[in-house]
């Protein structure tokens, strides 16, 4: 059985990933009605990962050292690969993941200034160097992303939702480094990373996503053995 298709979505908080993942999943269900896509997220997506998510995103965890933060992200990822992602891919299924190692390279490697080399080496050691087949990088303007993310966190606070505002409390310089690191990743891996840039409408972003995914699906079918 050929390996399934591993798709990741990346971008700053407030870039619209959650909305686009929901719309992509609906499109996949119509396109391939007999196969339910596997949707997951990082951090989270497993019982262990959800506990890590609650710790690492909670604003009360403000004292986490950068290396501790990165280690928690990779602990979550290794568990998700073992428990969810790799089994689904081995079954030939389509996996759509909200964030993967590109997020760690952007946020911890760039934002925390740990650097890409350490992140990529840990990915090789702890994640068996598993790579997405396609990464959709949503990169609206920095200002638009931050405004949406902080507005969402204010709304969540008013609704007594779980506190996941730790990263949004960072200063703009941190997010400038994250944003630039994402662009660096896109330049380095143009075959894997499709950059969807600019302050586009939800429909415009969705159209670009499904066009790209349709092409990858056709390529996967063409490359499958008879």
In short:
This protein is α/β, with parallel strands linked by helices and 226 residues long.
Write the layout of secondary structure elements.
Layout: E1 6-10, H1 17-31, E2 38-41, H2 47-57, H3 66-90, E3 95-98, H4 101-111, H5 116-126, E4 134-139, H6 142-158, H7 172-188, E5 193-197, H8 202-223
Parallel strand pairs: 1-3, 1-4, 2-3, 4-5
Helix pairs in contact: 1-8, 2-3, 3-5, 4-5, 4-7
Walkthrough of the structure:
- This protein is of the alpha/beta class and 226 residues long.
- It has a single domain, classed as P-loop containing nucleotide triphosphate hydrolases (Rossmann fold).
- Helices cover 57% and strands 11% of the residues.
- It is built from 8 helices and 5 strands, in the order βαβααβααβααβα.
- The protein has helices at residues 17-31, 47-57, 66-90, 101-111, 116-126, 142-158, 172-188, 202-223; strands at 6-10, 38-41, 95-98, 134-139, 193-197.
- It has a 5-stranded parallel sheet, with helices on both faces.
- Helix 1 packs across helix 8 (202-223), helix 4 (101-111) runs antiparallel to helix 5 (116-126) and helix 4 (101-111) packs across helix 7.
- The longest helix is centred in the middle third of the chain and has 25 residues, at 66-90.
- The chain is globular, with a radius of gyration of 17 Å.
């Amino acid at each position: 059985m050929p390996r399934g298709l591993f798709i990741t979505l990346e971008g700053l908080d407030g870039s619209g990933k959650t909305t686009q993942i929901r719309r992509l999943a609906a499109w996949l269900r119509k396109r391939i009605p007999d196969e339910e896509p596997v949707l997951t997220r990082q951090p989270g997506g497993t019982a262990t990962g959800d506990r890590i998510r609650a710790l690492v995103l909670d604003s009360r965890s403000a004292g986490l050292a950068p290396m501790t933060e990165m280690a928690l992200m990779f602990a979550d990822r290794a568990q998700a690969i073992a428990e969810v992602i790799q089994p689904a891919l081995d079954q030939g299924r389509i996996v759509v993941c909200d964030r993967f190692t590109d997020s760690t390279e952007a946020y911890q490697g760039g934002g925390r200034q740990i650097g890409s080399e350490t992140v990529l080496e840990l990915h090789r050691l702890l994640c068996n160097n598993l790579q997405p087949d396609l990464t959709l990088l949503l990169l609206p303007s920095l200002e638009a992303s931050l405004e949406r993310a902080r507005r969402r966190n204010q709304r969540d606070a008013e609704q007594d939702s779980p506190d996941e505002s730790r990263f949004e409390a960072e200063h703009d310089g941190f997010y400038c480094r994250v944003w630039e690191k994402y662009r660096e990743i896109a330049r380095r891996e143009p075959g894997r990373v499709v950059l969807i840039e600019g302050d586009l409408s939800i429909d415009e972003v969705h159209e670009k996503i499904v066009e790209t995914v349709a092409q990858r699906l056709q390529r996967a079918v063409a490359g499958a053995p008879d």
